[in-house]
Each structure stands twice: as structure tokens, then as C-alpha cells.
Amino acid sequence: MLPGMSAFSFPSGPMVTDIWPMARVMAGMSAVPVGHAIDLAFFFPDADRERHDALMAETRRHLGGCLTGIESALRIALSDQPQIAAVLAQQASAISWPTICAQPTLLGPALLAHMQMRAGVTLMLRQFGQPDGQFDEAEADALLCTGDPAINETLAALAVAEGRWLAIGAEDEAMAPDLPVEHYAELLWTAAACMAAVVQRAGTNDAEAILPLFEKAGRTLLAAHDEAKGPIAIAARLVRQLGERADAADLLGAALGQRRFLLFAALAARRLRMDCAHVADIMVLGPVSELAALCRALGGSDVDYRLLLLALRPVRPSLSDAAIIGESDRYQALTEAQADAAVSALRVPAALRAKFDHLSRVALR
């Protein structure tokens, strides 16, 4: 069981899905204590979705850091409300992250999946020594073969954004919440609820008086949020700027060779007509069969696939030399038609795919 998490929080409804660790043991069952469910999930893991200590620690860092960053912004937005500000001032340390640790079922599955993907990309960048916000124009020219200042500027912005993810810090140390708007909104309302509960327990106001004030502050932050500042969005923008140049035959290999993982994901997403974040998620967390389908659909050779698996080792510790040989043998048997069919299935809406996968697992039990 993860430290600080309650063993008696009960998940229900859509919270119990593919992402949270108890999903496999919860399928088709009623409420089970979270601690017991997590223990079962770790003793009998789902081989299709790897979770290891480094990934879990990095996920908690991103989740706690973004949540604390949003809480800090909410404190500022509520500073013109004397009674609320006075109560919050008595709580100098973070409120939201300890609450989440005690009540993890406040987190939705899509948000947690996104945070795991962010953490996985961060681990890969850190493993291969990605410069912390540094940018080399000569490297950009070699990679993209362009002297376009606008493209160089976007590539520099991507390096800076990736550098924010690489920053080392404690779980409750604020980091920039450069999230897609739907995930930002969920974290925002989660932080607001945690803080409002503390204010209510202080006895200064009732819920009817408190919640509208937190809503107003939250909507102000939502209106000011710019999801385009995140590295995934920047990588996708860079590929759009490249236009037809993004389809150059050797560009995918060059991006992977320079360990520009998000650029690689964005280039692959353009060619496969998929979302960049979805491709990145498959790269770092998806079943190896999906990864193989993506590579074959992109026209990857057997050598390309082995190089891809080697590059992903930091987030896939199960990819030993023997495992890579085995996966390479299976890849040789994968036809382009089979890969295209698999990718077509991956293009369906995420909600449809997640619910269908969940029901399929229930039916198998």
C-alpha cells in the first residue's frame, strides 16, 4: 500500500477503471478497501501495463506538484475574501495533496493516466540526459533541416517545457500545472474542494456561503489557463508548423535517435491520424502489442522496432535482452494489414475504448 493512503476509501462507479491499480480485482465486484485491492493488484499484476517504483514516484511528484501549484494559485485568488484567507493562512503547508493521499479515490482515471504518461516521458528524458531547458540550434538544424526561426523558437519552447517536467522536487513542491484543460479543471476543482472542506471545518462559514466563492476563484483560474504551454501541445504545434516536412522519411528515426520523445510522438501521431498524447501514452505505458502495431503502421523495419524498444527501456524495465529478442520475433510475424487494423481500433474515442476494455475484462471473469 502506498504511504499515507487510506485503506478504507471506497471507489465506485467510473472511478474503477483501467488506470487505478485495483481495477483488475474490482471488475464486477462491489466496494473493497483500497489497501486490500492495491495489495492484490501488485501481487497479481497486469502484465499489459507496467508500473515500477520509479514511475510511481515520478507520477506522485507530477500529481502532487501540479495540485500544489493550483492550490497556491487558489490561495492568491481567494486573498480578497478575509474570512477564507484567514483560515487558509493558518494552514501554511499544502492542504490538497495530503487530502488526496488520504482519499485517493478523489482522482479520476483519465487524470491519473495522464500523470503516469507525463512521469514516463520525464523518466526517459532524465535517463538519457536531456538538457534541462537548454537548446542547441545546430542540433535543431540537423534534426529538422530548416533555418526557419519560428520553428527554432518552438523547438526551444519545447526544450524549456520539458525542462519544467525534469525539475526535481518533493511531492508537495509546486510545479507548473501545464495540463490539458480537462485535467487542469479536474485538479482545480479537487483542490478547491479540499480547501473548502478545511474552511468549513473551521466553522466560520457554511457550505452555501463558501462554495460560490471557491467557484468564482476557480473559474477565474480556468479562464486564464493556457494549455498550449505544455510540452505535448508544443510538440504537436511544432509538427503542424513543419507541415509536409514532417513527413520526411528519416525524421522519425532522427527524433528517436536524439531522444526527442515528444517530438517523435507528435510526428507519429500526424502520420497515424492519432492524438499526440495517446501515442506518447502507448509508448511509455501501453501494451507492447500496441507499440508493435504503431511501429509497423509507421513502416518501421525489424531494426527500427528493436531500436524503439531499447529507447523505451527506462520506463519498461521488463524489456530485457531476452524479452526484446522475443518481441522482435513476434514483430516479424506482424503484417501491415494487421497493424493497420489495430491502429484503426486505437483511433476510436478514449471513453468508448476504456469502457469496452473494462466490460471485456469483466466478461472474462
What's the structural blueprint in terms of helices and strands?
Layout: H1 23-26, H2 34-43, H3 53-77, H4 82-89, H5 96-102, H6 109-127, H7 137-144, H8 149-166, H9 181-201, H10 207-224, H11 231-242, H12 251-257, H13 261-272, H14 276-284, H15 288-297, H16 302-311, H17 321-332, H18 336-346, H19 350-363
Largest sheet: none
| Cα distance spanning the termini | 25 Å
Q: List low-pLDDT spans.
A: 1-31, 130-137
- Overall geometry: globular
Average predicted local confidence, pLDDT: 82
Individual helix count: 19
Task: Please state the structural category.
Answer: mainly alpha
Descriptive tags:
365 residues; mainly alpha; 19 helices; disordered N terminus
Quick recap of the structure?
By secondary structure, the protein is mostly helical. It is built from 19 helices and no strands.
What does this structure look like?
With 365 residues, the chain is mainly α. 64% of the residues lie in helices and 0% in strands. The chain is built from 19 helices and no strands. The chain has helices at residues 23-26, 34-43, 53-77, 82-89, 96-102, 109-127, 137-144, 149-166, 181-201, 207-224, 231-242, 251-257, 261-272, 276-284, 288-297, 302-311, 321-332, 336-346, 350-363. The two termini are 25 Å apart. The model is unreliable at 1-31 and 130-137 (pLDDT under 50).
